Amino acid sequence: MELYELNLSDAIQGLKDKKFSASELFASCKARIDKLEPEIHAFITRTDSTPPAETSGLLAGIPTVLKDNLCTKGLRTTAASKILGEWRPPYDATAWAKLKEAGAVLMGKVNMDEFAMGNTCGNSAFGPTRNPNDLSRVPGGSSGGSAAAVSAGYVPFSLGSDTGGSIRQPASFCGVYGLKPTYGMVSRYGLISYGSSLDQIGPFARTVKDLQLVMSVISGHDPMDSSSFRDKDHDFTHREDVSVKGKRVALVKEFQSFTLDAPIAEAMAKTRKVLEEEGAEIVEVSLPVVARYAVACYYALAMSEAHTNLERYDGVRLGYTVKDAAGIKEMFERVRSYGFGPEVKSRIIAGTCLTEPTRCEEYYVAATKVRTLIAQEFTRAFGECDFILQPASPSMPWKIGENDEDELKGYEADLYTLPVNLAGLPGLSFFAGYAGNLPVGLQLIGPRWSDPALLDTGVILERHLGSPKIANGGK
Amino acid sequence: MPELTFTPVIGIEIHIRLKSDSKLFCSCSTNTDAAPNTNICPVCMGLPGTLPHLNHRVVEQGMLAGFALNCGIRPKSLFFRKSYFYPDLPKGHQISQCDLPITTSGYIEVHDAEGKLKKIRVHHLHLEEDVGSLHHSASDGRLEGADTSYVDYNRSGTPLAEIVSEPDVASAAEAVEYVMTLRRRVIYSGASDVELEKGMMRFDANVSMKCSDGRWGHKVEVKNMNSFKALERAIEYEIKRQKKIMLQGGEVMQETRHWNDAKGVTSASRVKEFYRKFIVEPDLPPLFISQEWIDRVAARMPEMPDVRANRYVNEWGVPQEVADVLTDDKNLADYFEACVKAGANPVRAAHWVRTEVLRVLNERGQKIQDFAMRPEVLAEVVKRVDDGKLSTTQGKEVFDHMAANNSSLDEAISALGITEGGVAGSALNEIIARVISENPDVLEEIRSGKDKKGKKLKFLQGLVMKETKGQAKPQEVAEAVAEAVK
Amino acid sequence: MKLTSEQVNDIALESRLLLTEQELAGATRYINNFLDMLDRFKELDLKDVEPFSFAEAIACPLRDDKVIAFADTEAILHESAHVDGSYFKVPRIMEGE
Prior knowledge:
The structure holds 3 protein chains of 3 kinds. By secondary structure, chain A is an alpha/beta fold.
């Protein structure tokens, strides 16, 4: 067995037991990256040219990668956009600062859809990333690079961000575990904003236990993020003696008539059976507002927030710029027109349009009210159940270049993930087996702050459904 | 046909810098005099990934300023993003409480054209962040060609209160009184120093005209006034301009106009104004203010200047004009009250502070805080003059000597050669003059030669001795009175 | 069609975006489809619904008024191609901007 194949907790144990050194682990991961990266193209910036200095802490010597919308002091951070140019942030994102403090070693910054807008990782100024399980297919997005890097054995864990499914969908496409934590659980300071009220940073790993380890490091209050919660203590300790006996796991009534790709429907049935055998009760909850309005509500709000988050890119203080503009307006127009990709431009225009005074009540304000209804609907549902089980995506990973024409159809594919962000809930994307060489992932959702309980349940599911293998490019 | 009359309808928006050490949403210093772009950080530069973090003290400053305008405090207020593109605005939007502000409505009293008090209603006060500053010449002062601008972000993110009035102002004079009274009250509250020369107060005015024939002109927003004078002139200009248009049967356009202080005119701005609805700032949860917190801050509110001035007039008999001057500066009024507390007669102390203390301060370009003479010492001088131990002239000499040399009262008296413990010289002469002037018939008798036995002269000498409370030498009194009646 | 391509172009300019003809056509189609999708909101009675602000009644945390200077302002300035001396030098702001 090669060292890069070790999952996070085994790598930590091996280093502690001195079975191998941090530099051997680093070398093994680097060799793995060197071998597969020309095909997978997960990286935007690599930082593994020289072996790292010795570190200490829970994650001492553990290689990792970060989605390139997490700020790293002195290291280029692009959000996969031309507009950020060669920008090197003068500060670290809090989540990365915590990992670094715990001893983690950065191998690089990985690919994503530009400003996290997309679900294929193909909408990047640096070109698409390929799914390590099948190089002709997308890894999912927007955190496709983070998912692919863990799936391909580059690193045992990574960080991504999830605004409407950007951790859970690529986790399921790549065959790894991914957690979108409760909104407010992980500091957003240093995460380049897309939809601020929806964004949340979370981990990818190849076991549930590894997610627990990473969450124990990155969660917690941060005074730099006013939306991060204080007075909340979360125990992410891994336990084997967990049970779902007597727990009510719900299926959403309205989703039952929607079409799923066959392997996903089969995985749902299999998972349901596992839970029942473990003593959980399968119930049904009704989410009519979610089913019909969540997609529209989500995009209205995400774009309204996004267009204001993207107003700061004007070429004055950082990133791509022009030096020969005749006036300031011309400078802003040239910088933004060249710097943003087409999907980002469309969303900026849509967001601007929705918040114009003539349309604001009709669209933006209406969406904020629909969001209230959606949050209330989930609160009611969690009065009747402990968790909700549903797909992370209705489709298996599609071929690169497919589904590119009709953006809105692509948006509908996010129905299973984005309501979770609207209500600020945690969602676990878990591995549920293979269909051929492609992994199938599903999603378990809980009420706010149920992240530890979700992961405990994930441990049981992993025990029965198995852990994913490291992907070899479909070979 | 009856002559048409016009009534101006004016609303005023004021931006005031609130006093704090650090900025509204980050820990950078608010010192805008620092070298350019030194008081900056990732947050106030709007760098990607950064988030705002609200300053506790600024919230309280907003509450204090609100109290100064007779506003209530809202238990829940919100922040919004107000979008526009400009190089001095790092995020491309300003974080502002515009839609759900920290205060409810209030008012400021001013005098109308007939001298009667009227209320100018304050719609609300809200908190927001300031933008950076733009310069059109290089740091070395050298003027560049007109093709570049220089941005300094030190001011970016410093805390502002925006105060929006109802359109209750009817003249430029009312506008000026409104902003002056408002400024004084805000300074008193401690919310801001409102130093005008540092640009801590900026004005916009909405001016429209109502005509006696029922026509009502459109509202014109006049921007770019940075002094009381500019505000007054801009409003006067705009009233005249709109009246002329309406008299000629024209229609006043709804537009934004800029005040050009050098030319003394307003001119239409060609900038297209976007009235964009604000979105809720998703990075800041609602600001909740408990009644207990409101009470705690309200307890810190000092007596307001107009209330204080009225007290001086009504309780102590200080003339209104003097009371207004004393209360214009809270520290000066505090100084005056300390004098009274130390035993000085309020009316006399008021005049001393009004004339002598202010004269010295003006000469030196100092503030009362810089004045070394303790109020208790000034009170002693006032008392001695009152008691006749020092003549008014001597008192002023002593005062000047102490102020100039930073000396004690005793040092000043001995340095000036004023006899200690006795009434002599000019002090004695003042008493004699007063006694004589109060007894014109006695003087007349002496001068007409009727006082052959010198009884009347002795009578005057006795009165003078009594006035000096026995502190003068009888021989001196006798000689001086004899001399005075000649 | 709710919005013409001219209207979409105006919104783009307001966002400081210059669109090619192809981009404009794409954006116009995109926005109109999107607004159609949002029309679903009209099926709901939202009159008495509070707008959502935060998932829980969380109060805005407050910071002490303490100055902590940022250590590396040079690193901020270093990232701009427009820094001239200690200022950011930008093209002239023309009237109408």
